[in-house]
Write a structure and sequence with these properties.
The chain is mainly α. The chain has 5 helices and no strands. The two termini are 19 Å apart.
Length: 68
């Protein structure tokens, strides 16, 4: 599992969201969220920014480049 997968899963859990709830907020399917969390697919740059904005995080954090 890569850093993005781990951090996405952790942020989703910390915010009390199910995969379905996160998918709805991002306007994607729950299966796609599962693929991201399992490291089977990567998201687009636009989606990376949307995820960072949703969790008030940075793209660098999601990608494992920083610890904050």
């Amino acid at each position: 599992m890569n850093k993005f997968s781990e951090r996405l899963k952790d942020l989703r859990a910390e915010n009390g969201l199910t995969r379905a709830q996160l998918a709805e907020k991002l306007n994607v399917s729950p299966r796609l969220v599962a693929y991201w969390e399992n490291g089977q697919r990567e998201c687009s740059f636009d989606m990376l920014i949307a995820i960072a904005d949703l969790f008030a995080s940075s793209a660098d954090y999601l990608l494992g480049r920083t610890e904050f």
